Amino acid sequence: MSRQVVIFCDFDGTAAEQEVIVSLFKAFGQPGWEAVRDAVISETLSVREGVGRLFAQIPSHRVPEMVAYARRNATLRSGFREFIEYCRVQGHRFLLTSGGIDFYIYPLMEELLPRDQIYCNESDCSGPTVRILWPHGCDEHCLADCGMCKPSIMRRFPSEQYRRVVVGDGITDLPAARLADMVVARDLLSVKCRQAGIPYEPFETFYDVMTVLDRVEAEVCG
To answer: What are the chain's domains?
Structure first.
């Protein structure tokens, strides 16, 4: 029996054209946020610590403004909507796996994906500043302090039963790429894959991703 394809797709910079979380910090973050971001990218600061620290500086009462800003400025990457339907037709399981935050991802994914297909960090705005919650933390096999641990989610889908495909663009996708049967990458993730010797297929639109999957499926079946 052939393995079911499971797509683990990033959000910021992947499903969305923009790094939405970065655009929010540019608009609402406190001075010095860039240094924290750069420390996360260089892997000198964990994602969980960096993201938690940055949002802890933002007053909770500004979250509705941030949601409105994300709705105005974020655009989905070309072909993404069609890719969701493509996965349904092909019988591929699609999961949005993001280190972003629920308060902007859920509104942007309305009518496209049910929430049980979205894995992201959650937020608590009941206090004076935004507190990030981590419902999808690292399992016993990961010590990277990911916050939203993509490899831990992938391990729920063993490679003996599933063909695991990672689609992403950034540093948070690299640990997942190391576990994947196939990687479709752009931007920083493609650079990191080359440096680590991880094979990958490049993409710019989700039409490219569909083309890659069709080609690989034909090769496997042929």
So the answer is: 4-221 (3.40.50.1000)
